[in-house]
EamA domain-containing protein
Amino acid sequence: MLLSTLLFAGMNACVKQLHHLPALEIIFFRSIFSIVASYVALRRLGVAPFGNNYRLLISRGSTGAVALVCYFLAIQHLPLATAVTAQYLAPIFTAVMGIWLVREPVRSWQWVFFALSFGGVVLVQQGGPATPSAGPAEPADLGLVYLGIGVLGALLSGLSYNAIRKLRGREHPLVIVFYFPLISLPLAALGCLFHWQTPQGMDWLWLLVCGAFTQGAQVAMTRAYQLERLSRVAPLNYLGMFYALGLGYVFFGENFGPVAYAGMAMVLLGVGLNAWYTSHVDARSASLPPAEEVVA
């Protein structure tokens, strides 16, 4: 998951370089890269690309694709801080829905750690550099609509990650990754029919790198959700913020105030406490004798 968040941060930096291209166009090109890379890798491994658990695979692909569209719409029509904060609800949605969808309970103290991390994200966004609006300000009513779209995207991301968890041991990780561009490609292509701008010069290189980062991030994230409890790995998404802040400082000259650094400390504390607590509880549970031995 740490590798995944690093690669996603690199992808975001590429998207920032391509700010002049329509969002759906970037999704279109990165989907082409991912679908080709996944198919070639699966054929070389001798794995059937379309898998066997079609219902879950389509669920993962469709919820992930629509969540991505919602996220890009929120970024285009809301202040960046608001859009990103809404997306950071996804790890919490993932853990909460996992209680019912994959029967993985969230322990009481974990709720405290989730709240601590999310509060830190809010502080970082409030204390970060001002981001100029990409266009005219949205009316208040439309702003609420796009905020709702951003929250919907986070909710759909949670559903998508739970589908990945349910596919553990049933499908190869690359098969799961393959279904994401398989569904997002036609959705993005439909949007490109109404708004197209041909990439120029270095745009093609950035699109290629963006696709490579996306593919690596998806594979790493899928493997993480298959191997570990949702409530344990989902909060690690928040650490992607640190990668993004570092890239923003080095490549885009973005500086942050003391409020943002306080928020970073809260995020790190929340994630660290969650990891320590789940490891401690799991180790203690593993050391207990089976119930029948206790009764005997």
Observations:
- Residues 131-136, 291-296 have pLDDT under 50 and may be disordered.
- The chain is about 75% helix and 0% strand.
